[in-house]
Amino acid sequence: MTGKVLFLAVLLALGTGLVGGLIGVALFSGGPDLEDQVQTLRAELENLAGAQQATSGQLETLSSALSQLEESVGRLQGEISDLKETLPAQASAGTQTPSSALAVAYVDLTGLMNELFQPVQNTVDFKNQELQDLRQRHEAGEIDDETYQKEALQVEVELLAAPLHWDLELIDKMAASPEFADLRDSLEELRDKVLPLQDELQGLRDAAEQGDIQTFLTQYQQLSTVFQQLDQLVSQVVQAMLAEITRDIAQAQGYALVLRKEDALYLDTERLADLTPLVKARVPEFFP
């Protein structure tokens, strides 16, 4: 199989999944007949199954830690949902501001989340541009097939690593913040489980450098799934705590109702108080 055809099979694997990629390898490799290709594919699948079992213990441990943190987040989200009931009740009991009008404010949680994750998005955009530049250089004949394959796969690894590094940084910040005190133990445990995966990333880099496509595909699929779950969970934790901070501020200042800016059908920002800067000021370490 030539380098260009093999790399095309790898791209098919990244786009359609591990099995799809192996089928792509079989289809593009040619051979005396279809039966031989099928037998080869079966052997490769058996080898991959064995490789997956080698790291399953570590992934199961991480999944357990993720589940525990999800339970904690669920409890926090339940408390936040009570805001719709407690604030109107307090308002009717006379706990609103001295003004006779209903005290209403809004908060832009989506804007805060976008700002928080902007650094990692910048990295992802930069790496995607690197891939595009590599493709253009390859099409122009400036780099050969082998160089293009190795460098492109290395960039794919960096794209996979960027969210992991950012999530680890956020986990450290959350564990050190008093706003996340209730989750500190779970966050520290999660961090300890995630840190060893950085070594797995190095193994993925080595496989890309050596042109070991089978090992690369196996590890890439496993790590990609775990990293996506981790990224989603970290985002949920951060958003839940920003909402909790919003509730604290609203109660302290006597607001009867706080709207999420992105959920409002109509919102006149000139007539309502914006709690976003106050929420941001409570966790300045997340918005340097």
Task: Explain briefly what this protein structure is.
This protein has helices at residues 3-16, 18-29, 34-81, 83-92, 109-116, 118-139, 145-176, 184-194, 197-210, 213-253, 276-282, and strands at residues 104-107, 257-260, 273-274.
Short descriptors:
single chain, three-stranded parallel β-sheet, disordered N terminus, 288 residues, elongated, mainly alpha, 11 helices, 76% helix
Helix content range of the residues, please? over 70%
Number of strands: 3
Sketch the topology as an H/E string, one letter per element: HHHHEHHHHHHEEH
Instruction: Please tell me the overall pLDDT.
Output: 77
Number of separate structural domains: 1
Gross morphology is elongated
Biggest sheet record: 3 strands, parallel
- Sheet-strand content, in percent, reads under 5%
| Radius of gyration, taken over Cα atoms and rounded to an integer in Å | 25 Å
Largest beta sheet: what is the strand line-up? Answer: 2-1-3
- N-to-C span: 50 Å
Strand-pairing-aware structural class: mainly alpha
Low-confidence runs of at least 5 consecutive residues:
1-35, 90-100
Number of helices: 11
